[in-house]
UniProtKB/TrEMBL annotation:
Residues 133-215 form the RCK C-terminal domain. This is Trk system potassium uptake protein TrkA. The lineage of its organism: Bacteria, Bacillati, Actinomycetota, Actinomycetes, Streptosporangiales. It comes from the Bacteria. InterPro entries: K_uptake_TrkA, NAD(P)-bd_dom_sf, RCK_C, RCK_C_sf, RCK_N, Trk_Ktr_HKT_K-transport.
Amino acid sequence: MHIVIMGCGRVGSTLAHILEDKGHSVAIIDQSPEAFRRLRSGFRGRRITGFGFDREVIAEAGIERASAFVAVSSGDNSNIISARVARETFGVDNVVARIYDPRRAEVYQRLGIPTVATVRWTADQILRRLLPEGAEPLWRDPTGAVVLAELDSGHLWVGAKVGALEEHADTRVAFLSRMGEAFVPQRDTVIQDGDIVHIMANAEELERVNAAVAARNGEDA
């Protein structure tokens, strides 16, 4: 595929290298020529100086033949405008924009522009390390309504079946991590000592789920 990236910061340059290593052609846009110093000397993609929402600039980057467009500059407005130009003017279906303001991310998601709200995601990761106990989000959708959370099942659930935990806490187990390996369990999968349970839930339900898990009465089969 040919992929156009707007923004040659740390994220943009990293994406460019990974995509090129996977065999894709890449064009990367940045308003500052100095930004391209982040690219390795052997980078074979195109470097375009300019603004990603300028139609002539993204046309020069090959947007008309692009399979995807990624906007990861440092500005929310620039990212979303560029993403809309790529989709609405040039017909690129696979478009992703990085948005720092999670409230904006929700709006743009509803407009059909997939977004990554970096501030909320980073905050969640820091909280998981500061407050490791209980259910803390690993991922949440751009609206913040649905989360993937790591649940400390505790010693009370060792030997119990996944289905019993789901019924007791009225939640859904997405996958288990066991000795560094992740897998999707069956309802009759037995939770072992050291297992990390990951659940999918509504964000507003996390506190309740965590309390229910901690209150297991020992009678669940």
